[in-house]
Design brief:
9 helices, NAD(P)-bd_dom_sf, binds adenosine-5'-diphosphate, RCK_N, TrkA family potassium uptake protein, alpha/beta, 2 domains
């Protein structure tokens, strides 16, 4: 099912950036914050932005929050408000509740309340930035599981003009190049004769160790 209507509760730094991005992607977004200033800053950007306290059940009911496809609790500092909002949203029958957690314990409580997805923005961004600092060619990555990762690696100069056969990452490092994003288009499932040029983005799948050893060769 494609999601269409989002509710974002808490228009602080995280919530406002999330709400803005969802709107830019063409979705309908209702922003809620108890702070008038936070709401007025976003009122031009979002489909709707209202001043309300999300810990008040009647308020949530009256704005028809249960009809939203996904509601994100972007309240961080006020843990009590975050927890109360999350429980009310689940009780009111919101299908998909996503909440930001500031600590592992906060996340555990949200999990117990039945929150569908918990995000740790500060922790995750810290990990991401550390990976990118250690591996300058690493553009982005997704952890598929504890061991397996998909990484986007920018091809450095030393790979310019090499074919995948010459590079041979599967035999040398155990990881596979599943796509190459070039200036003029993406090659999905590239073959041995496909050539890599500097700054092409290689999408690689493998264990963390395999990807790390591949990256080490590129530095
Ligand atoms: P960030 O670190 O992303 O800026 P904050 O926790 O500082 O996150 O900000 C969260 C926002 O949530 C603030 O704008 C605050 O006014 C709002 N907020 C906190 N509690 C409630 C509540 N009960 N109802 C609505 N908005 C709330």
């Amino acid at each position: 099912m494609k999601m269409k209507q989002f509710g974002v509760i808490g228009l602080g730094r995280f919530g406002s950036s999330l709400a803005r991005e969802l709107t830019n992607n063409g979705f309908e977004v209702l922003g809620v914050d108890r702070d008038e200033e936070a709401v007025s800053e976003m009122s031009e950007v979002l489909t709707h932005a209202i001043v309300a306290d999300s810990t008040d059940e009647e308020t949530l009911r009256s704005i028809g929050i249960r009809n939203f496809d996904c509601v994100i609790v972007a309240i961080g500092d006020d843990i009590q408000a975050s927890i109360m909002t999350a429980i009310l949203l689940k009780d009111l029958g919101v299908e998909m509740v996503v909440a930001k957690a500031l600590s592992v314990l906060h996340g555990k409580v949200l999990e117990r309340l039945g929150v569908d997805r918990i995000i740790y923005p500060e922790r995750d961004m810290g990990i991401r930035v550390a990976h990118q600092l250690v591996n300058p060619n690493l553009l982005d990555y997704i952890e598929l599981s504890k061991d397996y990762t998909i990484a986007e690696i920018s091809a450095p100069k030393c790979l310019n003009g090499k074919t995948l056969e010459e590079l041979n990452p599967r035999a040398k490092y155990g990881c596979s190049v599943v796509a190459i994003n070039k200036k003029d288009g993406v090659i999905i499932a590239p073959t041995a004769t496909d050539v890599i040029n500097e700054r092409d983005v290689m999408v690689i799948i493998g264990t963390n160790k395999q990807i790390e050893s591949f990256e080490e060769e590129l530095v």
